[in-house]
Design a protein that fits this description.
Number of strands: 8
Strand content: 15-25%
Number of domains: 1
Largest sheet: 8 strands, mixed
Number of helices: 8
CATH architecture: 2-Layer Sandwich
Shape: globular
CATH topology: Endonuclease, Chain A
Pfam family, one: DUF6879
InterPro entries: DUF6879
Distance between the termini: 32 Å
CATH class: Alpha Beta
Strand order of the largest sheet: 1-7-6-5-2-3-4-8
Protein name: DUF6879 domain-containing protein
Structural class: alpha+beta
Oligomer: single chain
């Protein structure tokens, strides 16, 4: 199925066009039901993100401050999904020990979970059978109808997505991700065990592993 996602023909969009297209899809009254998001890569580059800039400069307090300031918007986003009849579930694949990127990202995911979003975490050992040649693609499946294959450039920066209007493939992707999701653990459990003790203490500057 994952090879089919990579090979599927679709409309390739840059980041801005992808975000606009996905927003329009969510607002479509005909689009209801489950939305699945699969996150695989262990390292990204979030250029243009103030929290990422703070992270790269070693200012951990600023990272946490920025993420906390986003709480109201995240809560509004969750309410928007509910109002539109959509249920978003995210599956985060992790390799241990966590990369410095994951230490950073987990602080954002923590806020999302506290605001009501559903996120689970699965050790990469559970997906090796799918990765004989390539890592799993980053993807989002909407309502068993539309699939987005998320794209990144050579530096790991977000570069948009390929939209695939293939209900059969979208259903297959949703089914596979949901099966993996059932094997995964709640994000909070993962965070307390693998993340909380590994981040710099408040008030510290520097001390990050290599990004």
């Amino acid at each position: 199925m994952f090879d089919a996602v990579r090979a599927a023909e679709g409309a390739v969009m840059d980041r801005r066009a992808y975000h606009a297209d996905a927003a329009a899809l969510r607002a479509d009254p005909a689009m209801t039901g489950d939305v699945w998001k699969l996150e695989r890569s262990q390292v990204f580059s979030e250029s243009g993100d103030p929290a990422w800039a703070a992270f790269c400069s070693g200012d951990w307090d600023r990272v946490l401050e920025i993420f906390e300031s986003e709480r109201e918007d995240i809560r509004a986003e969750r309410q928007s999904y509910e109002r539109l009849g959509l249920r978003l579930r995210r599956l985060r694949i992790v390799e241990l020990p966590p990369t410095s990127y994951l230490l950073w990202e987990a602080q954002s995911h923590r806020i999302f979970v506290e605001c009501g979003f559903e996120i689970r975490v699965l050790d990469a050992g559970h997906i090796r059978q799918f990765e004989s040649e390539y890592p799993l693609p980053e993807l989002m499946a909407y309502g068993d109808q539309v699939l987005y294959h998320i794209r990144y450039d050579e530096n790991g920066s977000p570069a948009g997505a390929k939209r695939v209007d293939d209900p059969a493939l979208a259903r297959a992707a949703a089914r596979t991700v949901s099966e993996l999701y059932e094997q995964a653990e709640p994000f909070v459990d993962f965070f307390e065990r693998e993340i909380a003790s590994k981040v710099p203490a408040r008030g510290s500057v520097g001390g990050f592993p290599s990004v």
